[in-house]
Amino acid sequence: MSIPASNLGADRATVQMLLDRLHRRIGAAGLAAAAVIPGLSAQVDQHAAEVRDLLGVRGRHPTLTALASYGDGLLDGATDRGWQLPQHDLAGWAGADGVAVRLVALCGLARSATA
Known about the structure:
Blueprint: H1 5-8, H2 12-34, H3 38-54, H4 64-80, H5 90-94, H6 98-114
Helix pairs in contact: 2-4, 2-6, 3-6, 4-6
């Protein structure tokens, strides 16, 4: 479900729906795995910093709209190239690729922005 970024700003419900869907699909399991896999935790932290830099908010939290737009586009592009979600067990998360880790980092940023 890809929604142009210009449409996301006008509809907070859509933004929240996209972020909630992403969190259910990958964020919850990935963040739980990162809590017990030190290497994954470090990767998630690095990707979170890169997302903040990419979205132009170094040192601050990106807006939920920016996170939703970026995450939706990243997931659509990866899925179009045949990417699949990692297995939701620790072994699957230990070998997670950059797309999975980036999406988990994005979910973590979204959760901390709303906390």
